[in-house]
Amino acid sequence: MDFIKKLDINGLIPEIPIIQGGMAVGVSLDGLASAVANEGGIGIIGTAGIGLVENISSGSVRRDNLEGLKNVIRRAKEKTKGIIGVNIMVALSDYSEMVKTAIKENVDLIISGAGLPLSLPSFLGETSKTKLVPIVSSLKSAQIIFKKWMKSYGYIPDAFIVEGPQAGGHLGYREENLEDENYSLETTVPQVVKFSEEIFRQYGKKVPVIAAGGIDSREKAQKMFMMGASGIQVGTPFIATKECDADIKFKQTVINASEEDIKIIKSPVGLPGRAVKNKFLEEVERGIQKPFRCAYQCIKTCKVTNAPYCIAQALLNAAKGNMEKGFAFTGSNGYKIKEITDVKTVIKTIIG
Ligand SMILES: Cc1cc2nc3c(=O)[nH]c(=O)nc-3n(C[C@H](O)[C@H](O)[C@H](O)COP(=O)(O)O)c2cc1C
């Protein structure tokens, strides 16, 4: 389209500048990621809880995750010659092993947020071609990451994803700032674009800025490109596609949601999250405990002893269609989705 630009992530150039946002647990696996890659976008595998999703039980949950990650990357690559990456949250307690495995499997890129991925370049080998893309929620976090990567590794990020407060899943903002203009995508994207231009002037490397959170229409995509973004990351609109890896009941939950059903929750991992309100979440809010056994502390920041439920288990249950024992994360625009379509249609709606 006339308004879109070429997205060039240090030599990784998709036909269309759309990254499908990684969605754990079990929402974006090889099915969705390869479908997006086959349409010319960048497909991203959500990696949290991937051993559980793959139903591997070797006796070590950490080993299961690495095995699951390897299997899903390999399956995705069998289904597409396009660009495949992974989303690995910094908050995962097996973060470094997951990153090493993804690099060993030659993924095209690693996207990393939910914390500052300060050590990410340390895992690259001499010959690794994997690109490294941090997710940031402010100019300050982009600057901190840039400074640390330059100082410790002489490495400049290959792109920045700015994820704004309208996104789905865990959010990198305090709850009270979610509706504050100073924290909006429209405020932060131009700031990070300016920072990226400074990097180019000083170091000669182009660091594209990718906008994420609530981009579900041509108008919104166009606005981001006009503000200097070179790409967009889209999550929620891909949930209601036939290629999405979650159960139909999960997709239907998002389709059936009204605007009032989409709420901010306090996640046991210590961050706010955006989700579709349901009986499970209402009970949790009323103080009802959902007993669980923690197999291993999958998220570093999870307050296991005080947690009213296990978020990994709840998200896994939901992705498998057991909505009574879990809930669906969604972006703020989830309620606008009215039917199941396919990846091609979603892409066409946004940049067609
Ligand atoms: C169901 C769901 C699961 C998500 N899981 C992750 C995740 O594991 N890691 C992450 O960095 N972002 C996650 N996100 C955020 C998305 O990758 C994406 O950046 C964001 O949702 C973009 O906003 P949008 O959904 O309004 O398009 C998730 C979002 C949703 C809706």
Count of helical stretches:
11
CATH superfamily of the largest domain: Aldolase class I
Average per-residue pLDDT, rounded, comes to 96
CATH class designation of the largest domain: Alpha Beta
Helix proportion = 25-40%
Q: What is the strand and helix layout of this fold?
A:
Layout: E1 18-20, H1 30-38, E2 42-46, H2 50-53, H3 61-79, E3 83-87, H4 95-104, E4 109-112, E5 131-136, H5 139-153, E6 160-163, E7 169-170, H6 185-203, E8 209-212, H7 218-226, E9 231-234, H8 248-256, E10 262-266, E11 272-276, H9 279-285, H10 311-319, H11 343-351
Parallel strand pairs: 1-9, 2-3, 3-4, 4-5, 5-6, 6-8, 8-9
Antiparallel strand pairs: 7-11, 10-11
Helix pairs in contact: 1-3, 3-4
The structure holds flavin mononucleotide (FMN).
Q: Can you tell me about this structure?
A:
By secondary structure, the chain is α/β, with parallel strands linked by helices. It has 2 domains: 18-246 and 339-351, TIM Barrel; 248-336, no CATH class. It has 11 helices and 11 strands. It has helices at residues 30-38, 50-53, 61-79, 95-104, 139-153, 185-203, 218-226, 248-256, 279-285, 311-319, 343-351, and strands at residues 18-20, 42-46, 83-87, 109-112, 131-136, 160-163, 169-170, 209-212, 231-234, 262-266, 272-276. It has an 8-stranded parallel β-sheet with strand order 1-9-8-6-5-4-3-2. Strands 7-11-10 form a 3-stranded antiparallel β-sheet, with no helix packed on it. The N and C termini lie close together (6 Å). The site of flavin mononucleotide has 29 residues, from strand 9.
